[in-house]
Amino acid sequence: MQKQRCRWANPANPLYLRYHDEEWGVPCHDELRLFEMLNLEGAQAGLSWETVLNKREAYRAAFDGWNAELIAAYDAAKVEALMQNAGIIRNRRKIEATISNARCYLQLKQETGGLDAYLWGWTDGKTVYTDGVHVATSPLSDQISKDLKKRGFKFVGSTIIYAYLQATGIISDHDAGCDWRHKA
């Protein structure tokens, strides 16, 4: 019997199906992945997630395995090199936002222990389950977005943060008919 997945999971793209089945909506406590996903969700602004997902490995290579200490030290020459990298989305504002976010992340890590403690602190360590009716934002994404912006993060509007919370399993939002609904 064929598995039922969320409507957005493109059945023609094995990478996308694996992402849906193994990552999306699964509670994440891995600091490196939380940092990666925050930046990838920002890179996705105005584009499809599938576009970013297909470039994920190139992003990992281009941004030093998402090592925030290295990224925070990037200079203008590195930005220019990234602008020439056809494997990533060559948008200067998004590239510069990633560098800025690395610096903000290092500060957040000193203050809160990192994204894991920070994000899960908003929900007392519990996943928020939805009714399967998709929305673009929530009061939770509004609050986190506002706080991250105050901390200097970029490309962290409420819609981006809602998608980020879904991707990292803080919000479980699989379609009502999806076989992965409430599995995590």
UniProtKB/TrEMBL annotation:
Transmembrane segments: none
Pfam annotation, one family: Adenine_glyco
InterPro entries: Adenine_glyco, DNA-3mA_glycosylase, DNA_glycosylase
Protein name in the entry: DNA-3-methyladenine glycosylase I
Native source organism of the sequence: Undibacterium squillarum
Gene from which the chain derives: tag
